[in-house]
What does this fold into?
Amino acid sequence: MPAAGELTFAAPRRAKPPRHLADLTPAQRRDVVSELGERPFRADQVSTHYFSHLGDDAQQMTDVPQAARSRLAEALLPPLLTPVRHLETDGGATRKTVWRLFDGATVESVLMRYPGRVTMCVSSQAGCGMNCPFCATGQAGLTRNMSAGEIVDQVVAAARWLRRGEVPGGPGRVSNVVFMGMGEPLANYKAVLGAVRRITAPTPDGLGISQRHVTVSTVGLVSAMDKLTAEGRGVRLALSLHAPDDELRDSLVPVNTRWKVAAVLDAARRYFDATGRRVSIEYALIRDINDHAWRADLLGTELNRRGRGWVHVNPIPLNPTPGSRWTASEPAVERTFVERLRAHGIPTTVRDTRGREIDGACGQLATVTAEAPGGP
Ligand code: SAH
It folds into this structure.
């Protein structure tokens, strides 16, 4: 038990999701298959079925003897996600999916197709424990951590839709994965790292998506950021800053009471030093709360204090969430904020906010189990 007053990021104890191929390293998969009394290379066949063929029916594993198919599928390919509903906008190019997990918990993912790129935004926890007041997910609290398999399976599902031409624009593939759905990825470190490994491992061990096209977003859990730095991977790190001063950030991102702005920015800079990957700073622009020109100046100064060319800023116009009195900044105020940052030499691009109409934009993912009856 944590001492009184100490912050804890541990998820409540719950039954574990069934073990899945995507939870395991290739060596572990071979061990499981051997324990079933099958030849180890069968593990590679199952991996090929799942990661390369994106198969969802074990009977399609025609290179595996009939008798072994069901046994292997039972041990390595349990169903993890049941679609509860799909919501689409942008003529189908943006698709939010509500998924039910094995224990009834629900999570959401959002697929966004752009010309020449498809981004899948995945959840890493059912709910979130970070309690940021402007984010709908934060308001519902944390239900539990997701397993690596549950995280990866969201991407595999999207890859299937695209391969089968179910997303307008013709057959395609997932090019980018962002850990920007429900949850705080770095509070579920082990599963998220496992998922990153599976997503980026070359087929058939994994999905073969380039590390440079995978983004992990965090509120700034410094110890976990440093752990990620030490992994020396090439994934992109995004930091949800939202305020350059502790006084305001303490209220917008409550974990700031533990890791202050300076500590979080230092950790982001260390990530850049170790990986050479430019860090993204996310900044939801909230009218009259954090959108002042002086805050843009302070942010520019704090970033430049730590060097040049290591960071860029993504202002995000605040998306509406139920019960919140906050709204997005005035367009002129947003423009000034961006200009000030650019005047400091900070590359700055306003994030487009896809999916607002389906409550699928940043900060709007918040299904509660009770509101998700019915089939797909
Ligand atoms: N917990 C991680 C991953 C979620 S990413 C993180 O916070 O980084 C979701 C992004 O959307 C975060 O940058 C979050 O701060 C931002 N966000 C949350 N609520 C929002 C809202 N109402 N409008 C715009 N952005 C929001």
Remarks:
- Residues 148-163 form the longest helix (16 residues).
- The pocket of S-adenosyl-L-homocysteine is lined by residues 130, 134-135, 180, 184, 217-219, 240, 282, 284, 316, 318-319, 321, 362-363 (CB under 6 Å).
- Residues 1-6, 369-376 have pLDDT under 50 and may be disordered.
